[in-house]
Amino acid sequence: MSVEAVVDEHTEVSVRARLVHAAARLMVRPLLTYWPLTGWGIWPLSLLETAAGLLPAPCGVRIERVDFGGFVGEWVRPAPTEDTGEPGVVLYFHGGAFVTCGVATHRYEVALIAQACGMPVLSVAYRQLPTVRLSGSVDDCLSVYRTLLAEGFDPTRIVLAGDSAGGHLAFATALAARAEELPSPAGIVALSPWLDFDCTTKQAHPNAARDAYAPVARLPQLVRLLGAELVDQELDPSPINRDLAGLPPTLIVTAEGEMLRCDAELMAQRLAAADVPVTLQVWAGQVHAFPVLGNLLPESRAAIKGIAAFVRDRVHPARSHPDLTALAG
Fold it and tell me: Quick check: is 21 catalytic?
């Protein structure tokens, strides 16, 4: 008998959230609707990560760069507390539709997660379009998880997390780890995840017109660029259509009016049907992947507190503490 998905609805909307939603609707959505998804059109998007890298580092954390050979990451550790033990690790994959963003654009959100959880976060700048297609991004994320295990990190103390495309990669990494018979992580956190590359349901849903800035009409072209079309049922790249049995407990966060709410709700249903404990949070009046906005919105801060509570609940007390600097050389 399948378990029931827990649905947690958040209906109060702050003034700041309303302003952000309106600004995204007026300025960001038109830009994303017409921005060219070509090689020369994708390249300038890397400037967003470059610009974010010029911002001052967030307070209250220590940041160390990691070179994985071909791509990089960052350890983001909260300031030491009275509890000197490090009870777990969050492995974070940023969003950006597989074409933009990186560790710098998500540094403030990751810092808040590290502080709220009281544990380090390893943020990964996996390769993306136009350098690699979807399979290359998944390979990078799996290789980082494999490296953590090889360095002695306890899988029962590792939580995979990500927003949007990164939410996809959190599930894809867990599924790829299972296929390689690697130990399962302790949990998955997916924020506005893109999980179904079949765009039919999203195109027909009322949220296709309601989404603050993400144009559903661009998804089919992006799917083709990613090489994620369904050509063989056995090789379906959409996590939502895979065998989900055995995945760890999961927290999914979505905005009530975003187009990817379809994916979040369907994944919650299918995880529950596969006997995977899952909580779905639905936040009214928010933009896609709103926790990334960090301290800008009270809802973002509240969502991050909920993420931290889930992570702490999933991570078991450590019997030993691997050296977190081992991967920073």
Answer: no
Q: Tell me how far apart the alpha carbons of residues 269 and 286 are, in angstroms, rounded to a whole number.
A: 22
Of these residues, 123, 137, 143, 164, which one is catalytic?
164
Q: Would the pTM count as exceeding 0.85?
A: yes
Asked if the model's pLDDT at residue 319 lies above 50, the reply is: no
- The one catalytic residue among 10, 21, 94, 288: 288
Asked if pLDDT for residue 318 goes beyond 50, the answer is: no
CA distance 222 to 256: 23
Establish whether 288 is a catalytic residue.
yes
Tokens of 329: 């050389």
Residues 27-69 pLDDT 10s: 999 999 988 888 788 888 888 999 999 999 999 999 999 999 9
The residue behind tokens 């990500």 is 162
Is 2 among the catalytic positions? no
Measured between alpha carbons, how far is 252 from 168 in angstroms, rounded to an integer? 11
User: Closest Cα to residue 190, out of 210, 165, 207, 211?
Assistant: 165
